[in-house]
Amino acid sequence: MNIYVLLKRTFDTEEKIAISGGEINSDGAEFIINPYDEYGVEEAIQIRDSQGGEVTVVSVGSGDAEKQLRTALAIGADKAVLINTEDDLEIGDEFTTAKILVEFLEDKEADLIFAGNVAIDGGSGQVGPRVADLLGIPYVTTITKIEIEGRNVNIIRDVEGSSETIEASLPLLVTAQQGLNEPRYPSLPGIMKAKKKPLEELELADLDLDENDVAAKTKTVDIYLPPKKEGGRILDGEVQDQVKELINLLHSEAKVI
Amino acid sequence: MSNQTENLIKGGSFLIEDVSYDRVFTPEDYTDEQVMIAKTTEDYVVNEVVPQIEHLENHEFDRSVKLLKQAGDLGLLGADVPEEYGGLALDKVSSALIAEKMARAGGFSISHGAHVGIGSLPIVLFGNEEQKQKYLPALATGEKLAAYALTEPSSGSDALGAKTTARLNAEGTHYVLNGEKQWITNAGFADVFVVYAKIDGEHFSAFIVEREFSGVSVGAEEKKMGIKSSSTRTLILEDAQVPKENLLGEFGKGHVIAFNILNIGRYKLGVGAVGGAKRAFELAVQYANQRQQFKTPISQFNLTKEKLGTMASKIYAAESAVYRTVGLFEDRMSKLSDEEVKDGKEVAKSIAEYAIECSMNKFFNTEVLDYVVDEGVQIHGGYGFMAEYEIERAYRDSRINRIFEGTNEINRLLVPGTYVRKALKGELPLFQKAQALQEELMMMMPEEPGDEPLAQEKYLVKNAKKIGLLAAGLAAQKYGKALEKEQEVLVNIADIISNAYAMESVVLRTEKAIEKAGLEKNKQKLLYTQIFCQEAFNKIEQDAKETLVAVENGDALRMMMSALRKFTRHTPINVIAKKREASEKLIDAERFTV
């Protein structure tokens, strides 16, 4: 089984995020493997361990993403590929990333591709489906269980808290939802072995792409933090007056009705 | 070997030699692998151990055993075990990072530390081939757990005064051990004990004793002030039958093992103290942001900022100093050939080389930890006194650190004691340097440091070392062999030297960071350095004065005091303002950050 996992380096959103000059302040920020991608890595390794094959993790981003790829190797992936766009691209969006990944994946004859349901930074959830679409293979999003028998795949996916059972066949792209598995820690022997595993670095030119081929289709206008949560207000008086007051406030202050 | 080691930094030499920043190891030098190892350890502690702490505190030690096996699966027990015996043979920095990250687990970190450190290391370093093959693979996985039995009811600091005896049986097959070893960490579940006993009541030696051997038993679980998550019991040896091939190291050379293992235990404790202090700091600053009084988060009060600034600058010093020492070990140990590693003697020599640094890390860092947990409770106010707050446990857990692995008093006495020994053996030209300093005093002109970053701090470090040398030289000259009775003076000298080591460690670390990434990214480090150096130097001045007055009198005292005034002349920085400034980033990050 030839398995690929698409992996993004993201901010650890459990840490404090600060914004300065319209950009997220990366000073002192912690970076991690996007947790949804990590479910993908874990599942890919489990499938490989039971069915044989090879797991390759792929990331599009800056040279710094090497750390997250090494972590995936330490967890148990076999190979890693970093498509480094640091020198070629100022900005990019979901289209950019998907286009680059497709160029890379096209001749790889992947049986199964894992992506995260969403990345916890941008949260668009687009890259996985876009890649599948451009490769012309089916995809199933937000999966919580996957079983493979031969070329047949049985999947349970999360649908707004309920679940849906789907039958599909390889080749296939799936996006991982929380609950798919409990990712393991990279063990110390795993970390030491990861040093010696292959990590290939590519640039756009290696994929016969230039920046115009992958130019972003969208523009980020502004980045801002959600407004600070304010303390609630408790209305008093007769219930009827409270209701009137509430409607009034929802209309004039919160402006939601 | 001589070619390889001549470039190595000698133990204790920092006092009389300058070292450039590129020769010291700093936390900014961690490799990606080391960071990953630290992260795995942290995740293990937070996700696996922390949820069980309440049970562990209630002495449910079957959980400790399971957790240790789980740690073994992750490789967290094999860092110091050679690969051929199932370990990972990691570098000393990785091993230290594991200890640092474990610290958050409180008493459980003591179980872990006792197993991988004092429990397993004697066999790693001093075991023969058969012993290593027999014990290490199971210790590296956690299938078997280890403990270390040195202390006895009547011999603590005086370890060699042990009363436990060993005598060879008539058949010549077994040593028969009799005695009691007290306060043995992991005794509740350990399978293997490294036990010290005197063969025929005279020859202090080490033995590997299995729990299953006939005549081996343990007492009841002790009721302790802190680290309750660790098992502590008496090991009772009543005609315990120990096969003669379980003699560890050489006959009558148990002290070589005991003292070297203590050295490692000491710097490891220093590392653990950094981890514990960082956690206590995090609890304190989070609480200070959360807790409102007078409609203001208490972190916004200047007195809280003062506390946070002081705590963090001390943690920075403790971290810089101990990882510098770890770097010294790594440099020296990594240059040993495979044969030398196999032969315990060279390893022991490498460890003994940095005995001074190990002792200083031990007492300095454990006192930083104690300071930080104490202020942590204070910031929590009445809530800090309540057991439902983690800081309450941290406060209790901290206290033992100043006592075990050699009390801080013993470790202080060891500093000047070891210097004198090194000087007498010709390993360090201490007397010559002290002599040269006396001459320098006569013609010394006061200096003005420049105003570029770190200029003042470098100047203070230089003078701090001279003050240390002056005080030590004077005391040695005055008392000669009787110096060892002047314990108060010795302790003052140890404090001066230790503060100088910590000051130099922060200055070199900050300098290295600035060289690498520029001043802008290292402002916080600079603030800690300025705060710490000023406060440590004030303490040095005070210790030196007290020492001079105790040692000299009359004209000689006046002359010495005037020399001290020259060495201490400087314009102090405004530490109040610096602490306020340093606290801002800490309050924002809600944890210790550099």
Automatic annotation (TrEMBL), chain A:
InterPro entries: ETF_a/b_N, ETF_b, ETF_beta_N, Rossmann-like_a/b/a_fold
Keywords: Electron transport, Transport
Domain Electron transfer flavoprotein alpha/beta-subunit N-terminal: start-end pairs: 21-211
Keyword Transport in record: yes
Domain of life (superkingdom): Bacteria
PANTHER family registered for this protein in UniProt: ELECTRON TRANSFER FLAVOPROTEIN BETA-SUBUNIT, ELECTRON TRANSFER FLAVOPROTEIN SUBUNIT BETA
Stated family: Belongs to the ETF beta-subunit/FixA family.
Biological role: The electron transfer flavoprotein serves as a specific electron acceptor for other dehydrogenases. It transfers the electrons to the main respiratory chain via ETF-ubiquinone oxidoreductase (ETF dehydrogenase).
Protein name: Electron transfer flavoprotein subunit beta
From TrEMBL, chain B:
Domain Acyl-CoA dehydrogenase-like C-terminal: residue ranges: 463-566
Cited InterPro entries: Acyl-CoA-dh-like_C, Acyl-CoA_DH_CS, Acyl-CoA_Oxase/DH_mid-dom, Acyl-CoA_Oxase/DH_mid-dom_sf, AcylCo_DH-like_C, AcylCo_DH/oxidase_C, AcylCoA_DH/ox_N, AcylCoA_DH/ox_N_sf
One Pfam family in the UniProt entry: Acyl-CoA-dh_C
PROSITE patterns: ACYL_COA_DH_1, ACYL_COA_DH_2
GO molecular function: acyl-CoA dehydrogenase activity; flavin adenine dinucleotide binding
Span of domain Acyl-CoA dehydrogenase/oxidase N-terminal: 31-143
Catalysed reactions, as listed in the record: a 2,3-saturated acyl-CoA + A = a 2,3-dehydroacyl-CoA + AH2
Cofactor(s), names only, from the UniProt record: FAD
Domain Acyl-CoA dehydrogenase/oxidase C-terminal: residue ranges: 252-415
Family: Belongs to the acyl-CoA dehydrogenase family.
Protein name: Alkylation response protein AidB-like acyl-CoA dehydrogenase
Species, as recorded: Cytobacillus firmus (Bacillus firmus)
